[in-house]
Amino acid sequence: MPTTARAVVIGGGVIGCSILYHLAKLGWSDVVLLERDELTSGSTWHAAANIHGLHDSTNVSRIQHYTMNLYKELEQETGQGCGVFQPGSLYLAQTEAREHQLRLQAAKAKLYGMNFHEISIAEARELHPLVNFDGIRCVMYEPDGGNVDPSGVTQAYAAGARQRGAQIHRFTPVTGTVAQPDGSWIVQTPRGDIHTEWVVNAAGLWGREVAALAGLQLPLQPTEHQYFVTETIPEIAAMDRRLPSVSDRDGEYYLRQEGKGLLVGAYERDMQFWAEDGTPLDFAHDLFPDDLDRIEENMMNAIERVPAVGEAGIKRVINGPMIWSPDANVLFGPVPELHNYFCCNGIIPGFSQSGGMGLLAAQWIIEGETQYDMFGWDVARFDAWAGKAFTKARVADQYAHRFAIHFPNEERSAGRPARTRPVYDMQRDRRAVFGLNAGWEHPLWFADMPGATETNGFTRQNWWEPVGAECRMLRDRAGIIDISNFAKYICKGPGAEDWLNAVYANTMPRAVGRSCLTPLISKRGGIAGDFTVTRTEEDTFWIIGSGMAERYHKRFFKQVPLPDGTTFESQTSAICGFNVAGPASRDLLQRLTNTSLATADFPFMRSRTIELAGVEVLALRVSFTGDLGWELHCKADDQMTLYAALLDAGQQFGAGPVGSRALMSLRIEKGYGSWSREYSPEYWPQEVGLDRLCKLDKDFLNKEAAVRVLRYPARERLVILELDADDVNRSNAEATGGEPIFKDGKGIGRVTSGTYGYTVDQSLALGFVRDAGPGDVVEVMVLGQPHKATILAAPPFDPEGRRLRA
Ligand SMILES: Cc1cc2nc3c(=O)[nH]c(=O)nc-3n(C[C@H](O)[C@H](O)[C@H](O)COP(=O)(O)OP(=O)(O)OC[C@H]3O[C@@H](n4cnc5c(N)ncnc54)[C@H](O)[C@@H]3O)c2cc1C
Fold it and tell me: Atom 19 of ligand 1 has which residue's CA nearest to it?
């Protein structure tokens, strides 16, 4: 055993071995993997190990494609077989919604050069003669789909890593991870300690236990999961080729050839947790007793679709554990509160994603950032609010709905409410329909009838009209939007201005009462965040950013040391806020305060602490709606008083509460970008129009990277598009984000946000395009079908910003 290493990977499942392999491949040969038992001793050894390329998320598709292509390379490189079978995968749609989903995925595949396309039922029958295609609306074919040998793949990663100098020590359990004052770690084992720069938690089923060694709690929960393999099926035995796998997700099972029989697995509704209070340390190559009754319904669906399954006997049943996060995505990345502690836990499709996950983990550790935006997978998306009850409820829901379509805008109710603001009951009394944002309940829209819940789908849903009414109310009169879930921070002290200037790309406001917008620059020069910074006192700044990115941003803030005597603290829980906006907002607010809100006294982008309805609020004259408006921030204890006063005063003006879904529509009408959609580390400042806010005459975090990328022309540009009304009315659907954009048959970009612009009466989308500009007519693939769209020269609402400055 070595006593030092640059990185110690804990866990020799498929993920740990892939991370080790990629660390070595990217140049770190001084790396060690510690496995408490044999390699593959967690979920890995018994997996069905199906591999798929396409996913609703584009970056996940990229990762899965990288992984699928890697397995064959690995075999060649290491001589270790990965047992790769790629007879293709058939994806079946039984419902209209599934057809929309598959068509959209096929359109994305075309844009990104991936092989996933529609075939006729006759072609599908030829490929898989055992499938009964009755009732199937369409079939997509992915020629590279298939499965691998789980042990072979893991051993191949291990062999590739060893060839590059990495070490693997089996039967070496990690019993302690101790942070050192200099930021390094001591990893303790019964065979000795290793002093290392980085700890990587890839302990799979024991991810929670290994995290606890560093004082961490990860929101993870194991479940049982079953599949069975049939005896030999004569038709398969008679074939000289392998059958494609079948993804009949409406039937809620997966199916592929195994030997001369079929393998069928299911995510049943009546799911079963395992190891709720901790994964037993003596569990290794173990399984649970069969319980096929639990998956009977799924089995019957499989038998109806592939009758041969019912005719063959069952040869083997596998009931094994897998471990889930609350949204079924991996918990990925360095833990923001620790130094150099990397998590890669809770991966469900480990064999579809192992390669991409290993590559991105190695990029993050060695290069400081991944090539793709991984915000949706970032361990920082959860925090202490995602406790045990929440995690269990979400995992149960995710497991039971593994193959259900997750629609755009869908909000699942399991485990909620996790945390609420003081006005939650008042909002509920006003028939708010809530969504979840960084654990907080926040109103999405306000229903016009009691007990309303929202419906979900790719087409316009029951909230479409009420959200339109809220938008029109705000633009015609005024609206009151709860913006409490924005992240808020106060930076105070003699070094506050210097510190903020050293963090952010823009120059901080020099005068008290002034605000500025500023990007935060990522390691590769992309947009890591967009913030509003206001100087409220000579030595005090008020900072507003994305609520869901608060923990993510911690990683950036801690890279610049705070000067002595200066503090930077989150106020997100302590402070609540409302945005009161619309042409009547000034008159409405003026009824509640003696401070003059006239433009001469309170211009756009200025701020002041004022008393409003007896409550002290910090008032900022900004609004994400693009309209005249103020953001009002108060202590959480005062939120109910303030809300009641605003609603009361609003009555006279015909103003009322407005939800976040209307806010999304209003900001798109104005062309404003939003974090994780238009602003992401993947986009350079000049591509999203934020280059003018990067002040190169001063130093700031990752300035070198900004300077480097700013030398290049934009690779693509953020634009606003108007979709053809007839096309949109025909499909009864807006773009929602992710839809490819084509011009003359060539892929030129993709949508990042879409909405109906209720107050401009246009179906709108924001997106990135290359080789196209204002006036060009393009095709946006809403529901996977071409919709004509025109690139606009300016946002349709108030392009000169008169309303904002009124
Ligand atoms: C029945 C079933 C079917 C599946 N089918 C598929 C499929 O078709 N396709 C697919 O992509 N995925 C499938 N999966 C999921 C897949 O198995 C997992 O995503 C994958 O195996 C996770 O790998 P891992 O390396 O993260 O974790 P694990 O395989 O759990 O590995 C973790 C390793 O860490 C080691 N370890 C733990 N604690 C310590 C410690 N303190 N010190 C040292 N070592 C430690 C363990 O011994 C273990 O070897 C299936 C899972 C199940 C249960």
Answer: 350
**Which pLDDT does position 56 carry in this prediction?**
84
DSSP 294: G
Spatial distance between the Cα atoms of 249 and 253, rounded to a whole number of angstroms = 6
DSSP class of residue 418 equals S
pLDDT digits (tens, 9 = 90+) for 713-750: 999 999 999 999 999 999 999 999 999 999 999 999 99
Q: Look at ligand 1, atom 26, and give the residue with the nearest C-alpha.
A: 204
Does residue 48 surpass a pLDDT of 90? yes
Closest atom of ligand 1 to 40 CA is 49
Q: Are 200 and 365 in contact (CB under 8 A)?
A: yes
Rg (CA), the chain: 27
Mean pLDDT, range 356-363, rounded to an integer: 98
Q: Within 13 Å and on the Cβ side, how many CA atoms surround 601?
A: 10
Termini Cα distance of the chain: 70
Count other Cβ atoms within 10 Å, centred on residue 125: 15
Asked if 8 contacts 36 with a C-beta cutoff of 8 angstroms, the reply is no
* 14 Cα to the center of ligand 1, angstroms: 7
How far is CA 264 from its chain centroid? Answer: 29
Secondary structure of residue 87 in the 3-state scheme: coil
User: Which residue's CA is the nearest one to ligand 1's atom 34?
Assistant: 11
> Does the reported pTM lie above 0.70?
yes
- Whether 659 and 701 have beta carbons less than 8 Å apart is answered as no
Q: What's the average model confidence in pLDDT over 387-399? A: 98
pLDDT of residue 450: 85
In eight-state DSSP terms, residue 265 is E
Residue 85 φ then ψ, to 5°: -115, 125
Distance CA 90, CA 209 (A): 39
In angstroms, the CA 169 to CA 155 distance is 13
Closest CA to 589 of 545, 544, 623: 623
Dist. CA 222 → ligand 1 center (Å): 11
| Cα–Cα distance measured from residue 520 to residue 503, given in angstroms and rounded to the nearest whole number | 7
List pLDDT tens digits, range 153-200: 999 999 999 999 999 999 999 999 999 999 999 999 999 999 999 999
State the DSSP string of 25-49. Answer: HTT--SEEEE-SSSTTTTTGGG---
Cα(156)–Cα(39) distance, integer angstroms: 11
**Which ranges of 380-423 would DSSP assign to H, the alpha helix?**
388-400
Residue 673 and residue 791: Cα distance in Å, rounded?
16
Nearest ligand 1 atom, CA 254: 8
What does the block give as tokens for 265?
A: 């697995």
Ligand 1, residues at Cβ distance < 6 Å:
10-16, 34-37, 41-44, 46-50, 173-174, 202-206, 210, 225, 227, 318, 320-322, 347-352
Q: Are 515 and 606 in contact (CB under 8 A)?
A: yes
Q: Rounding to the nearest 10 degrees, give the CA dihedral for residues 550, 551, 552, 554.
A: 90
CA 292 to ligand 1 centroid distance, Å: 22
CA distance 249 to 301: 10
Distance CA 17, CA 21 (A): 6
Query: For residues 274 and 223, what is the distance between their CA atoms, to the nearest angstrom?
Result: 5
Q: How far is CA 141 from CA 125, 265, 496, 631, 696, in A?
A: 12, 20, 57, 50, 50
Distance 718 CA to ligand 1 centre (A): 40
How far away, in angstroms, is 376 Cα from ligand 1 center? 21
Per the structure block, which two tokens stand in for 769?
């395009």
Contacts of 506 (CB under 8 A, 6+ apart): 516, 517, 518, 519, 533, 693, 694, 695
**Among 9, 19, 44, which residue has the most ligand 1 atoms within 8 Å of its CB, making it the best to mutate?**
44
Beta bridge partners of 562: none
Q: Are 431 and 452 in contact (CB under 8 A)?
A: yes
Q: Which residue has the tokens 């996933």?
A: 116
DSSP-derived secondary structure for 112-175: HT---EEE-HHHHHHH-TT---TT--EEEEETT-EE--HHHHHHHHHHHHHHTT-EEESS----
